[in-house]
Amino acid sequence: MKKSKIVLGKLALIILTGLSLVWLSCDDRTPTKSSGTDDIPVYTLALQSMHIALDQSNNVILVGEDVVGTGSLTRITAQLTDEEGAGLVGRSIEFSAKANGVSTGSFVYVGGDVADESGFVQADFTDTGAAMDNPGTQPYEGVTLTARFTQIGVPSDPDTTIELTRTLQFDVIDTAVTQVWPYRMVLNQDTDVIYVDGGLTKSTYSVTLMNNAYEPLTGLLVNISATPDTIGILSSGYVITDAEGKATFEFTDSGDPDVTGTVSIATNFDHPVYGLVSKAKQVSVIEQQDQTVVILSLTAQPVVGPDNNFVIVGEDVNDDADNASLKVRSRITATVTDADGAPVSGKLIEFFAIFGSDTSTNNFDLNYLTSDAQGLAWVNFYDEGESAIDNIGTPTYEGVTVVGYIDDVIAETRFNVYDQVSDVWPYRLNLYKDRDFINLDNGLTKAEITAVLSNQLNKPLKNVEITFSTNLGFINDVALTDTTGTAVEYFTDLGDPDDVGISTITANYQHPSFGLVTDMLQISIIDPSTSGIPAYIVIPASHPGDIMVTGGGGLESTNICAQVYDENGLLVDVPMDVTFVLGPTSPSGSAFSNDLDSITTTSTDGVACVSLNSGEEPGPVYIIATVNDSISATGIPVIIVTGPAFNIFPDVDITSIEPIGGGFYRMEAGALVHDLYGNPVADTTYVYWSIDVAPADANDTIDVEIIGVSYTNNQNLDLGNYPGMAFTSLIFPSSAIFDWGRIIAYSYGAEGVIVIDSVENDAIMPYYGDDLSLDANINYWDFTTMGSPANITLTATLIDGYGNPVEGGRILFSALAGTIFGANPALTDENGQALVIAQWTSDICTPIPNSDPQLYNNFDASCVAVLLDPLQITSDPRDIQFIRSYQLPAPPLGSSENSVK
Questions:
Q1: Rounded to an integer, what is the distance from CA 752 to the centroid of its chain?
Q2: What is the percent of the chain where pLDDT is above 90?
Q3: Residue 668 to residue 2: CA distance in whole angstroms
Q4: pLDDT confidence of residue 30
Q5: Across residues 232-240, what is the average pLDDT?
Q6: Cβ–Cβ contacts within 10 Å for residue 638, how many?
Q7: Burial tier of 140 (Cβ tally within 10 Å: 0-12, 13-18, 19+)
Q8: For residue 490, what are the contacts with CB-CB under 8 A and spacing of at least 6?
Q9: What DSSP assignment string belongs to 837-867?
Q10: What are the φ and ψ backbone dihedral angles of 332, each rounded to 5 degrees?
Q11: Which of 100, 418, 586, 820 is the most exposed place for a label (fewest CB within 10 A)?
């Protein structure tokens, strides 16, 4: 039988005592008629509820809550005892339930409808629908259950009636509204290594059980197991959660020095309806460590796939795949040697990771491991959806640092975990050759083929496999990249005359999760005994390959060349006429010499070149080269780029403010940078930022920090990026709200000229929050008894999102039918408060027609406060009631009503 199955037939021993559940009890008598004696018995009625469900064997299991339907229900237990605490046998107890004042549910008695020998009566409450309390409203909307005991007559007086009642409340949960499953289980341990020392060292565990809404589950039995169960001793096979949903237990060694190893400590709770929730931790039982001097080193390599068949990849990314088998992890290799470099086995290596300033031991499949016969140990680091990327511009390291240690011997390795695939993908695979042709000579001549693999950040990718293929000739299938991301192979012929021609060599890298990157090049295999006529033409990249728009301050022209080859891949040494034509999509104004859009020139040693001039528009230049009127090639050998910065326009978005913790806020600023012709400047053009006190601000300092350097086409807070746009952030505390600052942005233009401007009209540090309240010192005024006019103080209080009072806010007050005296709008003081006097006169209470004596209408004046800038926020209205009460006229002097008796 599983230890998690508790049969409630053992209620008195296990549930009532062991779980320490709360009882509602009554020790007073409520006779309906006094007997005139003191011989009325004193009874106690106690009441308790437990949420239960039945497993497949109809065993009753305590669960966390009662949900709509028959899957789980609430068991009610009442106990009736006398003044000595003895149970009253055979007495009837009536159960009833209401929700929102309406009868609900039904009851089925368990074990009979009268009290047993201990005074217990049990019944199961079955719901007829959801009944969930809203804690923000009155009255209680959940189930209110009542137990009632009635006894007519007592030994001393048959006319006396004793009636006892107890009530308790609980929810019947609609899972469409409140999700309770899956349960949340948290398992913590204070150490994952203990020694064979007869229990002197122990691993202490704390397990917490909550529902999906993070509410603690009280009184539930959690099973505990150790696998294998022969290495150590658990303090218990189960624990019961307390009022906070927590329970603790311990694990110690067996005392046998020959029994050591790693044990998995597992906790689970099996819900009969919903299923199993479990957690596990590992603990090692080891002998006392020896004093061998060891040397420890760590390396990290991102991989994908199972440990017995993984694929090495370039880097760790935290959102790389939905399929767990395709997620990237970092495989940590630990190497343990002695002082002579010989491997040391049997050393326990413990691991932890540092994310910036956070330290974790939970990111490993094992956070300790023993070195094998080769002195090696492997552990997997999982990013758990978090990223950590080093900023090379700061002295601290912000990436992941994995630390391994053996006693006091420590080693570490560092790497980045990138936030998203687009940070590193697509990869860049570039293929290079050292020659354009080889001879058909059975491998005597060869070409060196170099593949260079880097990520989107131009970081080389080491130890990854590049695959090669060719349609003619021979090249090895696979090569590994070195630390520079470079893999080298050699291309040769096979001596087959059919291989003569142009060979296309392809290099591929297949990432198991992200996809494929590829590059290719061509090499000719020629027969030196033959030569041919022009067979094809090639347009190579120009040098320089980038030229600037006219007036951009840099090179404005370059050479465009074409190479003419014969059928053997050799340059044709006979002069040939080559015609160059600009493609129809080329940038406006670009042209060949003498403003031509087509030009013909003669090749020399197989190469023909012409000059190309830029225009006023950036973009790629599309070229068509033709020889013999029939052989042509197309290409984009050059790109016209934008000029240097000529103007800059900064601005700030006061609606982008967000709290970032510690009482500070962040607000975004941006700058648009153009060249002389209005083109967005080149990406990564640096923009420098500063902030000064605005001239209109009386303060001589401003508590605002601005990130001082950004660059065009960087990413903004919404993860967008735009050509010619540079974004930065301002950081300021609550005390700087409503301060004015002059935000300045500048860049460098042609010949180092500074291009500078500031945000127009300066910028105010905006308010963040929605806490503007209005109060009045008087909420009621009677003009008859209190006089006219009525002068009432209105106080507005402004609090920011951190709960701090905000000084300097402009508050505009309005009062229905009243007059505001004092500055309006008024500025909040250091306590976040602004005060004005509002005045009303008695004529706002208008006469009620045809009343005798004369009566007046009441008047409710609604007052509001509005924060004017930079974004308007309105307080809830404050209502003040004004009346003119009726007062009897004074009696005439000398009348009996005024005489003194």
A1: 43
A2: 46
A3: 59
A4: 44
A5: 93
A6: 25
A7: middle
A8: 446, 447, 448, 449, 475, 476
A9: EEEE-GGGSPBPTT-SS--B--EEEEEEEEE
A10: -95, 125
A11: 100
For residue 541, what are the CA distances in angstroms to 13, 447, 546, 627? 88, 21, 10, 18
Looking at residue 57, its amino acid is: S
CA–chain centroid gap for 605, Å, is: 63
Residue type, 258: D
Going by C-alpha positions, the residue among 274, 280, 207 that lies closest to residue 242 is 207
> Prior bond to 789 cis, omega within 30?
yes
How many residues are there in the chain?
901
Given CA atoms 544, 549, 553, 557 in this order, what sign does their dihedral have?
positive
Please, are residues 318 and 419 in contact by the beta-carbon 8 Å criterion? yes
**Residue 115 tokens, joined:** 């009290």
Lookup: tokens for 562: 């074409």
Q: What is the DSSP string of 540-609?
A: PPPSSSEEEPTTSSS--EEEEEEEEEETTSPBP-S--EEEEEE-TTSPTT-EEGGGBSEEEEE-BTTEEE
Tell me the pLDDT tens digit for each residue of 473-505.
Answer: 999 999 999 989 899 999 999 888 888 888 999
- The end-to-end CA distance of the chain, in Å, is 96
In sequence order, what are the residues at sequence separation of 6 or more whose Cβ sits closer than 8 angstroms to the Cβ of residue 570?
A: 437, 524, 526, 531, 606
Peptide bond between residue 870 and the one before it cis (omega within 30 degrees of 0): yes
**Whether 594 contacts 616, CB under 8 Å:** no
Nearest residue to 580 via CA among 546, 611, 534: 611
Work out the number of other CB atoms within 10 angstroms of the CB of residue 613.
17
Residue 722 neighbours by CB distance under 10 Å:
15
The token duo for 186 is 């948290």
CA distance 315 to 453: 12
pLDDT at 319: 63
The two three-digit tokens of residue 135, written as one number: 């804690």
What's the one-letter identity of residue 901? K
**What backbone phi and psi angles, to 5 degrees, belong to 46?**
-115, 150
Contact 880, 814 (CB under 8 A): no
Per-residue tokens: 31: 């006779």
> What does R_g of the chain's alpha carbons equal in angstroms?
43
HEC sequence for 116-168:
CCCCEEEEEEECCCCECCCCCCCCCCCEEEEEEEEEEEECCEEEEEEEEEEEE
146-192 tens-digit pLDDT: 999 998 887 777 888 888 999 999 989 888 778 888 899 999 999 99
Structure tokens at 221: 């039995």
Residue 655 tokens read as 């609606």
What confidence tens digit (pLDDT) does each residue in 58-86 have? 888 898 888 888 678 899 999 999 888 89
| 481: number of Cβ within 10 Å | 23
Contact 368, 193 (CB under 8 A): yes
Closest CA to 446 of 467, 469, 474, 479: 474
DSSP state at residue 343: B
Q: Which stretches does DSSP call E strand in 356-445?
A: 358-360, 368-370, 376-381, 400-406, 409-415, 417-418, 428-433, 437-439
Non-local (6+) Cβ contacts of 769 within 8 A are 799, 800, 801, 806
pLDDT at 257 over 60: yes
CA-to-CA distance for 599 and 595, rounded, in angstroms?
A: 10
> Which tokens is 517 given?
């990157």
- Alpha-carbon distance of 695 to 43, in angstroms, equals 82
The whole-chain average pLDDT of the chain stands at: 86
Strand partners, 798: 772
The number of beta carbons lying within 10 Å of the beta carbon of residue 756 is 17
